[in-house]
Design brief:
With 212 residues, the protein is α/β, with parallel strands linked by helices. It has seven helices and eight strands, in the order βααααβαβββαβαββ.
Length: 212
């Protein structure tokens, strides 16, 4: 079963939220300003390009520091009311109780994706990987961002590695038209509205490869 993360499983955009938090901790008031300027600049870009530029903000950051910061962010923020969207979390738990494996598919900052996947018992965390030079992040991604068609590719690659799984039996959950390439890769697709309600996606609806 495949789940997008931001505004599908959790009620916020984890990457920008983490960026503001991390930059404030590491750079103080200047970090708050820099994070705000970067996020404003990304707002008008195509989602895949914005995703790549977002990750370049972490160029030179020690990978171990980024991973520790992601765990701290999750520990502090996941306690808040509304962090998880209850209906989607219930669906994830129901699929797991029925014996299904869960995969989170997201373009969020990869250490965040790993932490959230671990917390909800997801077997797979599907997204781009962070390039490293020794212990430091280069700010570049290995592979395309998990945005639009990138999510579909990740889903299909996982299914190809597990030929015993019939895509027609799988479910996928997303919140944005850019999730449609992923949703249309399986037999049962669900669109999550801002209020958390779920709507079944028609199997032959027109999709888009934009966004994330």
């Amino acid at each position: 079963m495949f789940f997008d993360v931001d505004e599908t499983l959790i009620g916020r955009k984890s990457g920008p939220d983490f960026l503001r938090d991390h930059f404030a901790r590491t750079h103080g008031a200047d970090g708050v300003r820099r994070a705000g300027e970067l996020l404003d600049a990304l707002a008008g870009l195509p989602r895949a390009e914005a995703n790549r530029r977002f990750h370049r903000a972490f160029r030179g950051c020690p990978a171990a520091e980024a991973e520790a910061a992601a765990r701290r962010w999750y520990r502090e923020h996941s306690r808040a009311d509304g962090f998880y969207l209850p209906t989607t979390l219930a669906a994830l738990r129901r699929h797991r109780a029925e014996g299904a494996s869960v995969a989170l598919v997201s373009g969020t900052f990869p250490p965040l994706l790993a932490v959230i996947a671990e917390a909800v018992g997801a077997r797979f965390a599907l997204g781009a990987r962070l390039e490293r030079c020794g212990p430091l992040l280069t700010g570049e991604l290995i592979g395309p961002p998990a945005i639009g068609a990138g999510k579909r590719t990740l889903v299909r690659q996982l299914l190809a590695r597990h030929p015993d799984i019939d895509p027609a039996d799988c479910w996928a959950y997303g919140d944005h038209p850019s999730d449609l390439p992923m949703l249309h890769s399986v037999g049962h697709a669900v669109m999550v509205a801002p209020d958390g309600t779920h709507t079944t996606v028609p199997p032959h609806a027109a999709g888009t490869d934009e966004g994330g």
